[in-house]
Amino acid sequence: MHSHLGEITVTAPGRGLRAIGAASRFYARLVTDSPIVTALSPARPRRSVGYEFETVVDDTIDEAEDVRSLLLSRRDGAPLPTWQPGAHIDVTTPSGSVRQYSLAGRPGSGDHYRISVRKIPGGRASTEIHALSRGAVLRVRGPRNAFPMAEAEHYLFVAAGIGITPIRAMIERAVRDGARWTLYYHGRSRASLPFVALLQQLALTSRGHVIVKTDDVDGFPVPEDIVDLGMGNSAMYVCGPAALSGRLRDESLASTAVREFHTELFAPAAVVDGMPFVLKLDRSGDTIEVGAQETALDALRRSRPDQPFSCRQGFCGACVVGLVAGRVEHRDRVLSPSERENSLTLCVSRAAVDGEALVLDL
Ligand SMILES: Cc1cc2nc3c(=O)[nH]c(=O)nc-3n(C[C@H](O)[C@H](O)[C@H](O)COP(=O)(O)OP(=O)(O)OC[C@H]3O[C@@H](n4cnc5c(N)ncnc54)[C@H](O)[C@@H]3O)c2cc1C
Ligand code: FES
Predict the structure, then answer these.
(1) Staple partner for 242: which of 88, 157, 174, 269, CB 3.0–4.6 Å?
(2) What is the set of domains in the chain, with CATH numbers?
Protein backbone atom coordinates (compact mmCIF):
# COMPACT_ATOMS: atom_id res chain seq x y z
CA MET A 1 0.00 0.00 0.00
CA HIS A 2 1.29 3.48 -0.82
CA SER A 3 0.48 6.67 1.03
CA HIS A 4 1.34 10.17 -0.02
CA LEU A 5 3.07 11.81 2.93
CA GLY A 6 4.31 15.36 2.59
CA GLU A 7 6.99 15.45 -0.06
CA ILE A 8 7.33 11.91 -1.40
CA THR A 9 5.43 8.67 -1.78
CA VAL A 10 6.41 6.15 0.88
CA THR A 11 5.60 2.46 1.09
CA ALA A 12 3.79 1.22 4.18
CA PRO A 13 5.42 -1.69 6.09
CA GLY A 14 3.90 -5.19 6.03
CA ARG A 15 4.42 -8.20 3.80
CA GLY A 16 6.48 -6.03 1.46
CA LEU A 17 8.79 -5.11 4.35
CA ARG A 18 9.39 -8.75 5.24
CA ALA A 19 10.20 -9.50 1.60
CA ILE A 20 12.57 -6.53 1.58
CA GLY A 21 14.18 -7.92 4.78
CA ALA A 22 14.88 -11.26 3.07
CA ALA A 23 16.10 -9.53 -0.08
CA SER A 24 18.35 -7.30 1.98
CA ARG A 25 20.08 -10.22 3.67
CA PHE A 26 20.79 -11.65 0.22
CA TYR A 27 21.90 -8.22 -1.04
CA ALA A 28 24.18 -7.64 1.95
CA ARG A 29 25.85 -11.03 1.44
CA LEU A 30 26.20 -10.38 -2.26
CA VAL A 31 27.75 -6.96 -2.13
CA THR A 32 29.85 -6.90 1.04
CA ASP A 33 32.97 -5.01 -0.03
CA SER A 34 32.66 -6.20 -3.64
CA PRO A 35 33.09 -4.14 -6.81
CA ILE A 36 29.42 -4.80 -7.60
CA VAL A 37 28.63 -1.97 -5.14
CA THR A 38 30.01 0.54 -7.61
CA ALA A 39 27.76 -0.88 -10.30
CA LEU A 40 24.76 -0.55 -8.00
CA SER A 41 25.73 3.00 -6.98
CA PRO A 42 26.66 4.43 -10.37
CA ALA A 43 28.00 7.93 -10.92
CA ARG A 44 24.76 8.62 -12.80
CA PRO A 45 22.39 7.92 -9.94
CA ARG A 46 19.09 6.21 -10.67
CA ARG A 47 15.72 7.41 -9.43
CA SER A 48 14.79 4.10 -7.88
CA VAL A 49 17.52 2.34 -5.97
CA GLY A 50 14.85 -0.20 -5.03
CA TYR A 51 16.07 -0.51 -1.48
CA GLU A 52 13.98 0.85 1.33
CA PHE A 53 13.81 -0.18 4.98
CA GLU A 54 13.16 1.03 8.50
CA THR A 55 15.94 1.96 10.88
CA VAL A 56 16.05 2.62 14.60
CA VAL A 57 18.00 5.48 16.17
CA ASP A 58 20.49 3.67 18.44
CA ASP A 59 22.24 6.81 19.63
CA THR A 60 22.43 10.57 19.11
CA ILE A 61 25.71 12.49 19.48
CA ASP A 62 26.12 16.27 19.63
CA GLU A 63 29.18 16.85 17.43
CA ALA A 64 29.35 20.66 17.20
CA GLU A 65 27.13 23.74 17.39
CA ASP A 66 23.81 22.72 15.73
CA VAL A 67 25.27 19.45 14.42
CA ARG A 68 23.92 16.17 15.70
CA SER A 69 24.82 12.67 14.57
CA LEU A 70 22.41 9.76 14.57
CA LEU A 71 23.55 6.15 14.64
CA LEU A 72 21.03 4.04 12.77
CA SER A 73 20.62 0.27 12.65
CA ARG A 74 18.05 -1.83 10.80
CA ARG A 75 14.81 -2.30 12.65
CA ASP A 76 14.50 -5.93 11.47
CA GLY A 77 18.05 -6.74 12.63
CA ALA A 78 19.26 -7.56 9.11
CA PRO A 79 22.66 -6.28 7.96
CA LEU A 80 22.70 -2.82 6.43
CA PRO A 81 23.58 -2.56 2.74
CA THR A 82 27.27 -1.80 2.28
CA TRP A 83 28.29 1.52 0.78
CA GLN A 84 31.23 3.38 -0.68
CA PRO A 85 32.59 6.83 0.33
CA GLY A 86 30.44 9.66 -1.04
CA ALA A 87 27.18 7.72 -0.64
CA HIS A 88 24.05 9.20 0.90
CA ILE A 89 20.68 7.87 1.99
CA ASP A 90 17.19 9.33 1.63
CA VAL A 91 15.68 9.77 5.09
CA THR A 92 11.91 10.11 5.52
CA THR A 93 11.15 12.09 8.67
CA PRO A 94 8.18 11.15 10.87
CA SER A 95 6.08 13.90 9.25
CA GLY A 96 6.93 12.68 5.73
CA SER A 97 9.67 15.04 4.46
CA VAL A 98 12.38 13.24 2.49
CA ARG A 99 15.93 14.58 2.56
CA GLN A 100 19.38 13.26 1.63
CA TYR A 101 22.07 12.70 4.27
CA SER A 102 25.61 11.56 3.49
CA LEU A 103 26.95 8.51 5.27
CA ALA A 104 29.61 9.99 7.50
CA GLY A 105 31.07 6.96 9.21
CA ARG A 106 33.71 4.47 8.16
CA PRO A 107 32.68 2.60 4.98
CA GLY A 108 32.26 -1.08 5.73
CA SER A 109 31.88 -0.51 9.47
CA GLY A 110 28.96 -2.89 9.65
CA ASP A 111 26.01 -2.54 11.94
CA HIS A 112 25.39 1.21 11.91
CA TYR A 113 24.93 4.10 9.54
CA ARG A 114 26.10 7.43 10.91
CA ILE A 115 24.45 10.58 9.57
CA SER A 116 25.36 14.04 10.86
CA VAL A 117 22.77 16.75 10.42
CA ARG A 118 23.12 20.52 10.70
CA LYS A 119 20.00 22.21 12.04
CA ILE A 120 19.00 24.86 9.49
CA PRO A 121 17.00 27.80 10.91
CA GLY A 122 13.42 27.21 9.74
CA GLY A 123 14.46 23.89 8.17
CA ARG A 124 11.67 21.36 8.22
CA ALA A 125 13.53 18.03 8.19
CA SER A 126 16.70 19.05 10.04
CA THR A 127 14.66 20.49 12.93
CA GLU A 128 12.62 17.29 13.11
CA ILE A 129 15.72 15.09 13.04
CA HIS A 130 17.33 17.09 15.87
CA ALA A 131 14.25 16.41 18.01
CA LEU A 132 14.54 12.61 17.62
CA SER A 133 15.80 10.52 20.48
CA ARG A 134 17.02 6.97 20.95
CA GLY A 135 14.48 4.36 19.81
CA ALA A 136 12.85 6.58 17.15
CA VAL A 137 12.10 4.86 13.84
CA LEU A 138 13.22 6.39 10.54
CA ARG A 139 12.46 5.13 7.08
CA VAL A 140 15.55 5.08 4.85
CA ARG A 141 16.14 4.47 1.13
CA GLY A 142 19.48 3.80 -0.52
CA PRO A 143 22.42 4.05 -0.25
CA ARG A 144 22.91 5.96 -3.48
CA ASN A 145 26.26 7.41 -4.61
CA ALA A 146 26.39 10.58 -6.73
CA PHE A 147 29.89 11.49 -5.49
CA PRO A 148 32.04 8.39 -6.03
CA MET A 149 35.72 8.38 -5.11
CA ALA A 150 38.28 7.31 -7.72
CA GLU A 151 41.76 6.02 -6.95
CA ALA A 152 44.43 8.72 -6.78
CA GLU A 153 47.99 9.19 -5.54
CA HIS A 154 47.02 12.29 -3.60
CA TYR A 155 43.60 13.56 -2.54
CA LEU A 156 42.85 17.23 -1.97
CA PHE A 157 39.66 17.27 0.10
CA VAL A 158 37.79 20.55 0.63
CA ALA A 159 34.88 20.72 3.05
CA ALA A 160 32.86 23.73 4.11
CA GLY A 161 30.93 23.22 7.35
CA ILE A 162 28.57 20.24 7.26
CA GLY A 163 30.03 19.37 3.83
CA ILE A 164 32.55 17.38 5.85
CA THR A 165 30.18 14.39 6.07
CA PRO A 166 30.96 12.62 2.75
CA ILE A 167 34.57 13.85 2.96
CA ARG A 168 35.06 12.19 6.34
CA ALA A 169 34.12 8.84 4.80
CA MET A 170 36.54 9.49 1.92
CA ILE A 171 39.32 10.27 4.38
CA GLU A 172 38.66 7.00 6.22
CA ARG A 173 39.07 5.23 2.85
CA ALA A 174 42.27 7.14 1.97
CA VAL A 175 43.72 6.20 5.37
CA ARG A 176 42.81 2.55 4.87
CA ASP A 177 44.43 2.55 1.42
CA GLY A 178 47.60 4.30 2.61
CA ALA A 179 47.04 7.19 0.17
CA ARG A 180 48.35 10.72 0.71
CA TRP A 181 45.68 13.28 1.49
CA THR A 182 45.21 16.93 2.44
CA LEU A 183 42.01 18.29 3.97
CA TYR A 184 41.15 21.97 3.76
CA TYR A 185 38.25 22.42 6.21
CA HIS A 186 36.50 25.79 6.51
CA GLY A 187 33.63 26.96 8.71
CA ARG A 188 32.03 29.93 10.41
CA SER A 189 33.81 29.27 13.68
CA ARG A 190 35.70 26.43 15.31
CA ALA A 191 32.69 25.53 17.47
CA SER A 192 30.56 24.97 14.35
CA LEU A 193 32.88 22.34 12.83
CA PRO A 194 32.26 18.66 13.58
CA PHE A 195 34.96 15.94 13.71
CA VAL A 196 38.03 18.25 13.91
CA ALA A 197 39.80 16.28 16.67
CA LEU A 198 39.07 12.94 14.98
CA LEU A 199 40.35 14.16 11.61
CA GLN A 200 43.52 15.55 13.16
CA GLN A 201 44.06 12.22 14.87
CA LEU A 202 43.59 10.40 11.54
CA ALA A 203 46.17 12.72 9.94
CA LEU A 204 48.70 11.93 12.68
CA THR A 205 48.41 8.20 12.11
CA SER A 206 48.36 8.25 8.28
CA ARG A 207 49.81 10.15 5.31
CA GLY A 208 47.39 13.03 5.85
CA HIS A 209 47.42 16.72 6.66
CA VAL A 210 44.53 18.82 8.03
CA ILE A 211 44.14 22.59 7.61
CA VAL A 212 41.29 24.18 9.56
CA LYS A 213 40.26 27.79 8.83
CA THR A 214 37.33 29.80 10.09
CA ASP A 215 35.61 33.02 8.99
CA ASP A 216 35.94 34.62 12.43
CA VAL A 217 39.75 34.16 12.60
CA ASP A 218 40.98 33.78 9.01
CA GLY A 219 38.29 35.44 6.87
CA PHE A 220 36.64 33.84 3.85
CA PRO A 221 38.24 30.98 1.89
CA VAL A 222 40.68 31.94 -0.90
CA PRO A 223 40.14 29.50 -3.84
CA GLU A 224 43.61 30.10 -5.38
CA ASP A 225 45.34 29.16 -2.11
CA ILE A 226 43.19 26.06 -1.69
CA VAL A 227 43.86 24.73 -5.21
CA ASP A 228 47.58 25.40 -4.69
CA LEU A 229 47.52 22.67 -2.03
CA GLY A 230 47.32 20.19 -4.94
CA MET A 231 50.46 18.26 -5.88
CA GLY A 232 50.00 17.95 -9.63
CA ASN A 233 48.57 14.44 -9.46
CA SER A 234 45.81 15.34 -6.98
CA ALA A 235 42.16 14.38 -7.22
CA MET A 236 40.12 17.19 -5.67
CA TYR A 237 36.84 16.44 -3.85
CA VAL A 238 34.76 19.42 -2.75
CA CYS A 239 31.61 19.56 -0.65
CA GLY A 240 30.35 23.03 0.17
CA PRO A 241 28.11 25.84 -1.06
CA ALA A 242 27.57 26.26 -4.82
CA ALA A 243 29.40 29.61 -5.01
CA LEU A 244 32.61 28.31 -3.39
CA SER A 245 32.45 25.07 -5.33
CA GLY A 246 32.08 26.96 -8.64
CA ARG A 247 35.09 29.17 -7.90
CA LEU A 248 37.19 26.15 -6.92
CA ARG A 249 36.19 24.38 -10.12
CA ASP A 250 37.25 27.38 -12.25
CA GLU A 251 40.49 27.72 -10.32
CA SER A 252 41.32 24.02 -10.59
CA LEU A 253 40.74 24.06 -14.36
CA ALA A 254 43.24 26.90 -14.70
CA SER A 255 45.82 25.22 -12.46
CA THR A 256 48.31 22.38 -12.90
CA ALA A 257 48.15 21.51 -9.19
CA VAL A 258 45.01 19.40 -9.57
CA ARG A 259 44.38 16.56 -12.04
CA GLU A 260 40.63 16.08 -11.56
CA PHE A 261 37.78 17.88 -9.81
CA HIS A 262 34.65 16.38 -8.20
CA THR A 263 31.95 18.11 -6.22
CA GLU A 264 28.66 17.54 -4.44
CA LEU A 265 26.19 20.22 -3.37
CA PHE A 266 23.85 19.86 -0.40
CA ALA A 267 21.58 22.68 -1.60
CA PRO A 268 20.77 23.47 -5.26
CA ALA A 269 22.78 25.98 -7.26
CA ALA A 270 21.02 29.06 -8.67
CA VAL A 271 19.21 28.66 -12.00
CA VAL A 272 21.62 29.33 -14.89
CA ASP A 273 20.59 30.48 -18.41
CA GLY A 274 16.89 30.36 -17.53
CA MET A 275 14.13 31.94 -19.67
CA PRO A 276 10.65 32.63 -18.30
CA PHE A 277 8.03 30.08 -19.36
CA VAL A 278 4.50 28.93 -18.57
CA LEU A 279 3.11 25.75 -17.02
CA LYS A 280 -0.44 24.67 -17.88
CA LEU A 281 -2.00 22.17 -15.53
CA ASP A 282 -4.07 19.83 -17.69
CA ARG A 283 -6.48 18.59 -15.04
CA SER A 284 -7.09 21.76 -13.03
CA GLY A 285 -6.82 24.19 -15.96
CA ASP A 286 -4.48 26.49 -13.96
CA THR A 287 -1.72 28.51 -15.65
CA ILE A 288 1.51 29.25 -13.75
CA GLU A 289 4.26 31.66 -14.77
CA VAL A 290 7.83 30.50 -14.11
CA GLY A 291 10.37 33.33 -13.82
CA ALA A 292 13.83 33.23 -15.44
CA GLN A 293 15.58 32.80 -12.08
CA GLU A 294 13.28 30.24 -10.48
CA THR A 295 12.45 26.57 -11.04
CA ALA A 296 9.12 25.14 -12.20
CA LEU A 297 8.97 23.43 -8.79
CA ASP A 298 9.31 26.70 -6.87
CA ALA A 299 6.69 28.39 -9.07
CA LEU A 300 4.26 25.48 -8.70
CA ARG A 301 4.73 25.26 -4.93
CA ARG A 302 3.48 28.82 -4.53
CA SER A 303 -0.04 27.54 -5.23
CA ARG A 304 0.58 23.84 -4.39
CA PRO A 305 2.85 23.75 -1.33
CA ASP A 306 2.47 19.96 -1.05
CA GLN A 307 3.92 19.25 -4.52
CA PRO A 308 6.50 16.47 -3.81
CA PHE A 309 10.24 17.15 -4.03
CA SER A 310 13.44 16.01 -2.35
CA CYS A 311 16.95 16.71 -3.74
CA ARG A 312 16.03 19.76 -5.91
CA GLN A 313 19.05 18.92 -8.09
CA GLY A 314 17.55 16.54 -10.63
CA PHE A 315 18.89 13.24 -9.30
CA CYS A 316 16.31 11.66 -6.98
CA GLY A 317 13.14 11.64 -9.10
CA ALA A 318 10.80 12.77 -6.30
CA CYS A 319 9.42 15.69 -8.33
CA VAL A 320 8.77 13.86 -11.62
CA VAL A 321 5.38 14.66 -13.22
CA GLY A 322 3.70 13.53 -16.43
CA LEU A 323 4.08 15.66 -19.55
CA VAL A 324 1.00 16.09 -21.75
CA ALA A 325 2.42 18.54 -24.32
CA GLY A 326 5.37 20.86 -24.90
CA ARG A 327 9.08 20.50 -25.59
CA VAL A 328 11.33 20.18 -22.53
CA GLU A 329 14.95 21.09 -21.92
CA HIS A 330 15.71 18.19 -19.59
CA ARG A 331 18.39 19.12 -17.07
CA ASP A 332 18.05 16.09 -14.79
CA ARG A 333 20.33 13.10 -14.24
CA VAL A 334 17.58 10.63 -13.44
CA LEU A 335 15.17 10.06 -16.35
CA SER A 336 15.88 7.61 -19.16
CA PRO A 337 15.38 8.73 -22.79
CA SER A 338 12.01 6.95 -22.95
CA GLU A 339 10.88 8.45 -19.62
CA ARG A 340 11.80 11.88 -20.98
CA GLU A 341 9.25 11.52 -23.76
CA ASN A 342 6.32 11.75 -21.36
CA SER A 343 7.63 13.14 -18.07
CA LEU A 344 9.96 15.75 -16.58
CA THR A 345 11.62 16.76 -13.32
CA LEU A 346 10.11 20.00 -12.03
CA CYS A 347 13.16 20.93 -9.94
CA VAL A 348 15.61 21.51 -12.83
CA SER A 349 13.96 21.07 -16.26
CA ARG A 350 12.47 23.95 -18.26
CA ALA A 351 10.61 24.71 -21.48
CA ALA A 352 12.91 24.20 -24.48
CA VAL A 353 11.18 26.66 -26.78
CA ASP A 354 10.74 30.30 -25.93
CA GLY A 355 7.06 31.13 -25.45
CA GLU A 356 5.85 27.51 -25.64
CA ALA A 357 3.95 26.25 -22.57
CA LEU A 358 4.58 22.92 -20.88
CA VAL A 359 1.29 21.11 -20.25
CA LEU A 360 1.57 18.93 -17.15
CA ASP A 361 -0.55 15.99 -16.05
CA LEU A 362 -1.69 17.76 -12.89
C1 LIG B 1 23.44 14.45 -1.61
C2 LIG B 1 23.11 15.27 -0.38
C3 LIG B 1 23.70 14.97 0.84
C4 LIG B 1 23.41 15.73 1.97
N5 LIG B 1 24.04 15.43 3.15
C6 LIG B 1 23.79 16.18 4.25
C7 LIG B 1 24.45 15.90 5.48
O8 LIG B 1 25.26 14.96 5.59
N9 LIG B 1 24.16 16.69 6.56
C10 LIG B 1 23.26 17.72 6.47
O11 LIG B 1 23.01 18.39 7.50
N12 LIG B 1 22.62 18.02 5.31
C13 LIG B 1 22.85 17.25 4.22
N14 LIG B 1 22.19 17.54 3.05
C15 LIG B 1 21.15 18.60 3.05
C16 LIG B 1 19.82 17.98 3.53
O17 LIG B 1 19.36 17.03 2.59
C18 LIG B 1 18.71 19.03 3.71
O19 LIG B 1 18.60 19.79 2.53
C20 LIG B 1 18.98 19.94 4.89
O21 LIG B 1 19.01 19.17 6.09
C22 LIG B 1 17.89 21.04 5.00
O23 LIG B 1 16.64 20.40 5.04
P24 LIG B 1 15.44 21.07 5.86
O25 LIG B 1 14.21 20.26 5.57
O26 LIG B 1 15.84 21.24 7.30
O27 LIG B 1 15.30 22.50 5.21
P28 LIG B 1 14.12 22.98 4.20
O29 LIG B 1 12.84 23.03 4.99
O30 LIG B 1 14.16 22.12 2.97
O31 LIG B 1 14.65 24.42 3.84
C32 LIG B 1 14.46 25.51 4.72
C33 LIG B 1 15.24 26.70 4.19
O34 LIG B 1 16.64 26.46 4.33
C35 LIG B 1 17.29 26.57 3.06
N36 LIG B 1 18.30 25.51 3.02
C37 LIG B 1 18.10 24.21 2.67
N38 LIG B 1 19.26 23.53 2.77
C39 LIG B 1 20.19 24.41 3.19
C40 LIG B 1 21.57 24.30 3.47
N41 LIG B 1 22.25 23.15 3.32
N42 LIG B 1 22.21 25.41 3.89
C43 LIG B 1 21.56 26.60 4.04
N44 LIG B 1 20.24 26.75 3.78
C45 LIG B 1 19.57 25.69 3.36
C46 LIG B 1 16.21 26.34 2.02
O47 LIG B 1 16.53 26.99 0.77
C48 LIG B 1 15.00 26.96 2.70
O49 LIG B 1 14.97 28.36 2.51
C50 LIG B 1 22.48 16.80 1.90
C51 LIG B 1 21.86 17.09 0.67
C52 LIG B 1 22.18 16.36 -0.46
C53 LIG B 1 21.52 16.71 -1.77
S1 FES C 1 13.56 16.85 -6.36
FE2 FES C 1 14.98 15.27 -6.83
S3 FES C 1 14.84 15.13 -9.00
FE4 FES C 1 13.62 16.83 -8.49
Answers:
(1) 269
(2) 2-145 (2.40.30.10), 154-264 (3.40.50.80), 277-360 (3.10.20.30)
